[in-house]
Amino acid sequence: MDSLSGYYSGTPHFIFIICNSMPELRTDTEIIVADVSIEESLAIMCQQGVVILNCVGPYRFYGEPVVKACIENGAHYVDICGEPQFLERMQLEYHTNALDRGVYVIGSCGFDSIPADLGILYTQRQFKGTLTAVESFLKISSGPEGSSGHDATWQSAVYGFADSGSLRQLRKKFGHKPLPVVGAKVKKRGFVFFSKEIEQYAIPFMGSDPSVVKRTQRFLYEEEHQSPVQYSAYVGVGGLFSIAKFFCGGLLFWVMVKFSLGRKLLTMFPSFFSFGLFSKAGPTMKQIEDTCFSLTFFGEGYSEGTDPSQGPPNAKICTQVVGAGEVCTRQEPPSIKPVSSTASRTAASSSRSETTSSPSTVTIKGQTTFQLKYIVFILIPTFHPVNMTTFY
């Protein structure tokens, strides 16, 4: 994005709105409306744009026409999709055409799955040796008003789980061979377990992070000849009461998505069936400002000079991505117990060996504004600072 900010200058000439219904938007900038159901309107929009940021979901219903229009009209495409089936199907069906036309189609550029994908790459670069496996743990905390997700995300989950069989069939079409396992194979955790890492009960994360990370690792292995990293993602759900509520709600959800009437009820009453976690109105600005997340990565591998085929891993690393709202930035950062490396490391300034090193911090400036001449502008929360911290 730094290169983009240097290339484009000036104030935006247009705001492009991709929609299936006309939104209300007050702005002094000219608005061009493109309807996902009208191919010609999408083509006109893409011909006037350089980069199209598509935030219209669920993407399984509204995303493909925008991808197709961007490729045909030479506009680069970016979205915030968290639906593995859509992401992988677009890669399967449009990769060759996009490559021929020199168009970038980049999915999952939001919470799904920037923190996870960049977090893994950051952890790899910080690790002194060969990183072979990473487990991530997501924690979300909110203020007194609680938190809420938008109805479009809820719908994506409903139809995604209902059509999970199609995703398995889609993946077979790629013909991929399994990625090689370097070093010791990581044992999967149970469906529900108490995590000592985050000190609460956790379950496997059912979003797009594992899919996106695996696709990145496959690309790096096949194109860059880098050693692939095993990855497992989990999310904290709290105490025993939260587990009971999650189990009952999850069981009801799993049964209802199997039937058309059940799916209709789930999408008609998202707040009721999600225990208030999702609503048609989405989060308020206060909820957005008070909500924080932390994604902590626990990695293991082999120190420099150690052969991964010779025994178990001998080094560990812990990194963290933190996204904080305005209220949360005034609180103390989440405490993390540093993971000591079992391999000794030599300090550059002395000859003594160490098992740990001082934490290093890299800050991504979340409020940097890129002034693009032609780009989609969307109504989303301001991005707050995201910190990546390393603990050895």
Characterization of the model:
- The protein is α/β, with parallel strands linked by helices and 392 residues long.
- It is 34% helix and 23% strand.
- The chain has helices spanning 2-7, 39-47, 59-62, 64-73, 84-101, 114-126, 151-162, 164-174, 209-223, 240-256, 260-268, 270-273, 285-290; strands at residues 14-19, 30-35, 51-54, 76-79, 105-106, 129-141, 149-150, 193-195, 200-204, 230-238, 278-279, 292-303, 315-323, 345-346, 353-354, 360-364, 386-391.
- It has an 8-stranded mixed sheet.
- Helix 5 links the parallel strand 4 and strand 5.
- The longest helix is centred in the N-terminal third of the chain and has 18 residues, at 84-101.
- It starts with a helix and ends with a strand.
- The model is unreliable at 1-13 and 329-392 (pLDDT under 50).
Task: Give the SSE string.
Answer: HEEHEHHEHEHEEHHEEHEHHHEHEEEEEE
Approximately what portion of the residues adopt beta-strand conformation? 15-25%
Profile the largest sheet: 8 strands, mixed
* Number of separate helices: 13
Rg over CA atoms, rounded to whole Å, is: 22 Å
Overall pLDDT confidence: 79
Number of strands: 17
What shape does the CA trace take?
globular
> Could you give the distance between the termini?
30 Å
Q: Would you tell me the structural class of the helices and strands? A: alpha/beta
| Portion in helices | 25-40%
Strand order of the largest sheet: 8-9-10-6-12-13-17-16
Contiguous uncertain segments of 5+ residues: 1-13, 329-392
